[in-house]
Amino acid sequence: MTTSIDQAFLAQHPTSAELHAEAERLFPNGVTHDVRYFDPFGIYVDHAAGSRKWDVDGNEIIDYVMGHGALLFGHSHPLLVSAVQNQVGSGTHYGASHRGEIEWAHAVLDLLPSAEKVRFTSSGTEATMMAIRLARAFTGRPGLLRLREHFHGWNDSVVAGMGSGGHISDGGIPNAMAGLVTVVDQHDTAALGAALETKDYAAVICEPSGYSMGTGPLDPAVLHFLREKTRATGTILILDEVVTGFRAADGGVQEATGIEPDLTTLAKILAGGLPGGAVAGRADLLDQIAIPRGSDRSGAKRVAHPGTYNANPLSAAVGSAALREIKKGEAVATANARARRLTQGLNQAIRDAEVPGAAYGQASIVHILLGEDVAPPDDGFTWNWGNAGPQAIVPSTPAALQWPLRRSLLNHGFDLLGAIALVSCVHSEAEIDLSIDAFAAALSDLRREEIL
Ligand SMILES: Cc1ncc(COP(=O)(O)O)c(C=O)c1O
Question: 146 - beta bridge partners?
């Protein structure tokens, strides 16, 4: 008798099941991040190194979650470990300025074309919150224009209308706040243009790769359109490069496309896998945070920015080390090459299994779309719009398929973030090939159980 995907999952993960039962009494759903919610339970990781992690039941897994995209250098890269070790004994919080934050800022300005000044935060969510506030303060306009499905964290302005797993996740957002936000389909330039013409909006914010880490790729022509229209209407253009910063190219999507935003939000790779975020961009926008000097400070308006962990010395040390290494020019290129190899292999496996679907990617981010009859990428990598053109909405792997796929992949030692593989520069070609074999085995499981 063959073992089903679910039987194998339960048999391989008994200790994770026990820990999950305990965690359910402690955390809502037993998890500490929405995307870690998993049916019947998520795996508990014991330790990790390079491109691999080991769970509490001793299963070895090639990891493509990669710290939700923070780990361009894989787990515990020696360079970053020594940066932590060197710093941790010299103090983890000075409650004062330090050389490390200056070095970190220089590293950002060296890589990011549009950055004149920077301010560090503790997370990407704080960065998008700050960028939106800076834009509102500068323009005096309350409105915010967002693109549908684009993700920017969980502050009030960016969760209005946000869905997750079929639920609307905007509980607790007052209507007055939600009413300030307009959401438009990412390729609807007519609606975007009309909204901008009203001059009601302080800013447009978008994921420059397209929604959900590029699951729905964005035509760069839209970015050019937004740049032109925002300039003409006095609207601030915010590129949310929390994921794409130091990944889409060394200097993010803005380097790859030549589009210069007014503000950029950063996190993830910025801090080399430790907590940290930043807003970088035009000095006149960031300088609204400056506390007015001089004798008469009454009535002067500024933008507040406290934050206990801003530019934390540990994050600064690791972030600087990561960005200096990226500046050498090999890390992003290597991760991109590995992602291309992975995507081409996944497409071959999909063809061999004769199942509907395709894998596609941008830079070192790979998307798996199963259960939809879509044209595979012409070059084995880039999303194929076919006849539909960029106006089409890219479908996603249905939930009914995504979870068994991920359970089966975990059974075969391969972990994804949703249906996304984030590739690092330490995934070797041999590990990529092993992952392709694991994926082929998962497809065969899904076919056997007639899920696919
Ligand atoms: C594009 C984008 N912006 C903002 C955020 C929020 O960052 P954080 O999770 O550090 O708050 C994320 C997180 O995944 C993201 O992908």
Answer: 183, 205
